Amino acid sequence: MSLPQSEIHPQDRIHSSVIAFRDAQPDSKSIEKYQSLADESRGTGGETLADFLGIFSIALGLTQVLLPGGISKVIGLRNGDHHALMRTMGMREITHGIAILSNEQPEKAVWSRVAGDTLDLAMLATAMINSDNNRTRTLLATMNVLAVTALDVMCARQLSSQPKTPVRDDAEKGVLHTKFSVTVMRPPEEVYSFWRHLENLPQFMRHLETVTVTGDRKSRWTAKAPAGMTVEWEAEITEDIPNELIAWRSMPGSEVFNAGTVRFGAAPGGRGTEVRVDIQYDPPLGKLGAKIAMLWREAPSQQVEDDLRHFKQVMETGEILFSDATKQRGMHPAVPDAEPVDL
Q1: Where in the sequence is the domain holding 197, given as residue range(s)?
Q2: Residue 186 lies in a domain
Q3: Among 22, 46, 58, 69, which residue's CB has the most CB atoms within a 10 Å radius?
Q4: CB-count burial class (<10 Å; 0-12, 13-18, 19+) for 30
Q5: Mind giving me the DSSP string for 164-222?
Q6: Which residues of the chain have pLDDT under 50?
Q7: For residue 42, is it within any domain?
Q8: What is the CATH number of the domain that holds 266?
Q9: Are residues 325 and 337 in contact, defined by beta-carbon separation less than 8 angstroms?
Q10: Exposure string (b/e) for 7-27, b if CB count within 10 Å is 16 or more?
Q11: CA–CA gap between residue 75 and residue 199 (Å, rounded)
């Protein structure tokens, strides 16, 4: 016979809840696969802050180069003979900013900023000693530099504590990774078959013009490039497991290096096929080029995301559905254009 709820001691209720919560947790074996996927590319943070510091460095450097007299006045220097020094410091800031933004692992570049902050603080301390300067402004400038120095040190320490992973090792060589997945309401056999016929790829990859099969596992790809140009490369399939996996890489000497895998697996609950794409690529101008491309939504990571969504639509509905925002960027009247979409 069970006791009424009012007669159960509160500690017994808490104990029962803890046991129920513990029993509801998945066992270690069931999450091992997903944990290993996360560990392959996990980081400890710092990348977003590093990007901010890189942009800040370039902005500050340009101001110092273009307005050396104004900066001198802001930090309290009354002697107007510091233009050359200010411009030199500005060039140093610009160099730091470019180094941070152009490296996927900007750890060393951020530590260089810390060293630059030390020089700035030393210069401000010297300025503080000189009674001819406006010490109040110099003190405020020193406090601002100390605040930025704290951010630099925090960012550099976060980047330095990144774990050693295959993704990190490749990034240090200039090779970037992007991963994306989508669930398609079709069986794995059908999804794999459509993708394996490489001539189908331009149907949902908007940056591709043609894919021509030249051999059993070799093909020639033609893609759109900026300024109305095109780029071509030869690729080969390095692994092909029917209904499960396709792996490829560009041939040696190709204009564009890229490699990756696309995996097909049954989605939980009989919801079709889970498609997981993992791509490695070496963008022009490295990380900086990838960031510039991102402004026009042309970064490979964004293309992969868009392409997989288009792939899902093609497999499930037979066509790609476009919104008005797909055709017109920015502010515009909310009236769809009747003309066809040119991808």
Answers
A1: 174-323
A2: yes
A3: 46
A4: exposed
A5: --HHHHHHHTT-EEEEEEEEESS-HHHHHHHHHSGGGGGGT-TTEEEEEE-SSSEEEEE
A6: 1-3, 18, 21, 24, 34-35, 37-44, 292-297, 325-327, 329-330, 342-343
A7: no
A8: 3.30.530.20
A9: no
A10: eeeeeeeeeeeeeeeeeeeee
A11: 63
- The answer to whether 294 and 101 are in contact (CB under 8 A) is no
Closest alpha carbon to 139 in 124, 126, 149, 154:
124
* Tens digit of each residue's pLDDT (9 = 90 or more) over 218-262: 999 988 776 677 888 899 999 999 999 999 999 988 877 788 899
* Residues 295, 81: Cα–Cα separation, whole Å: 40
Last residue within a domain, chosen from 160, 183, 211:
160
**Token pair of 123 as six digits:** 């210069």
Residue 202 tokens, joined: 């331009």
CB 266 within 8 Å of CB 186: no
The answer on 183 and 126 residing in a single domain is no
Please count the structural domains in the chain.
Answer: 2
Q: How far apart are CA 107 and CA 100, in angstroms?
A: 8
d(CA 86, CA 88): 5
Residue 115 CA: distances (Å) to CA of 118, 127, 138, 150, 172: 5, 19, 20, 12, 22
Question: What's the chain's length in residues?
Answer: 343
Largest pairwise CA distance in the chain: 93
Q: Is residue 34 in a domain? A: no
Where do we find the tokens 């951020």? 110
What is the number of alpha carbons within 13 Å of residue 111 lying toward its C-beta?
Answer: 7
Residues 179, 313, single domain; the answer is yes
Is residue 281 within 8 A of residue 257, CB to CB? The reply is yes
Same domain, yes or no: 314 and 181: yes
Say if residue 116 is in the same domain as residue 230. Answer: no
In which element (H, E) is residue 326 found?
Answer: helix 324-327
Among 129, 160, 191, give the residue marking a domain's end. 160
CA distances from 247 to 49, 227, 244 (A): 34, 31, 10
Tell me if 97 sits within 8 A of 61, measured CB to CB: yes
Structural domain includes residue 33:
no
